[in-house]
Design a protein that fits this description.
This protein has 274 residues and is an alpha+beta fold. 43% of the residues lie in helices and 12% in strands.
């Protein structure tokens, strides 16, 4: 009997000791969590004192981080900070809207642009933002929900996309020369891409994996907001780029209307204008 009582007493002491240990561990974890939270708050407070760069978040334009057809690029989710380009200032007389950038006409040397930050790391030339916003608002009002999938790109990002396509085709068994040639029908060489201007956008559907309705609406209505379908199916021989129903370029409302009504592509229109 005494032995049993002694055994029970020892067991009770062990339970009490383990309970104290668990309590001390819990207290330690609470203290550690409090320290971490305090540190985050302090760092966050310091971050608020940092001056913001050019551009603000455009909360009402939707984007997504998956690649559009014909594009391997991903949006950097969560980034809303604006950035500056590495090239020279665009003309302020309105001619910036009609700068031709393609394989034969690279970006003007030193071209720069002030960017407006959208969501998920997307940026556009701040001068096109009001009409872009209005286009998205009007589309949604008509039951069309567009997503910006690609916008402004740096030269480095453009090169990365080009390299990815070349590698993909080489992995399919193509010779390097053939892989490069095929990639060039889809992706522009850095310095010859409209995406580096902040005037070009790849747009797909928000909810439906089939973006056909979105592209049809944009083809028929984007001119009202100064945008054109940049690479039509029947102009591949002129543009040098395969048909891209998702790629729209800002040129201003009057020019967009003329191009759309005439059926010309930008190259043909500018040549006609002399």
């Amino acid at each position: 009997m005494d032995t049993n009582n002694e055994t029970r007493a020892l067991a009770r002491k062990r339970r009490q000791r383990r309970a104290r240990q668990r309590l001390l561990l819990a207290i330690g974890l609470v203290v550690l969590a409090a320290v971490v939270v305090l540190g985050v708050l302090l760092l966050g407070g310091k971050g608020k004192d940092t001056p913001s760069t050019t551009g603000t978040q455009a909360e009402s334009i939707s984007v997504q981080s998956t690649a559009a057809p014909g594009s391997t690029a991903q949006a950097d989710t969560g980034s809303t900070q604006a950035q500056q380009t590495e090239t020279q200032a665009a003309p302020e007389d309105g001619s910036w809207k009609l700068i031709l950038v393609n394989a034969d006409h690279p970006l003007p040397e030193g071209y720069t642009v002030t960017l407006k930050a959208l969501r998920n790391g997307h940026y556009v030339d701040e001068r096109i933002y009001p009409e872009l916003q209005q286009m998205f608002d009007d589309a949604r009002a008509q039951g069309i929900y567009p997503f910006i999938n690609e916008s402004y790109r740096t030269a480095e990002r453009q090169q990365q996309i080009m390299d990815n396509y070349i590698a993909r085709y080489e992995n399919q068994g193509m010779r390097h020369e053939d892989a490069v040639a095929k990639a060039l029908t889809i992706v522009a060489v850095p310095g010859t891409s409209e995406h580096q201007m902040g005037l070009a956008l790849d747009i797909i559907a928000e909810y439906d994996s089939d973006s056909s309705a979105t592209w049809t609406w944009l083809k028929n209505n984007s001119w009202r907001y100064g945008f054109i379908l940049r690479y039509p199916a029947d102009k591949e021989a002129v543009t040098g780029i395969s048909f891209e129903p998702w790629h729209f370029r800002y040129v201003g409302v009057p020019t967009a209307q003329e191009i759309t009504e005439s059926g010309l592509c930008l190259e043909e229109y500018l040549e006609k204008q002399g």
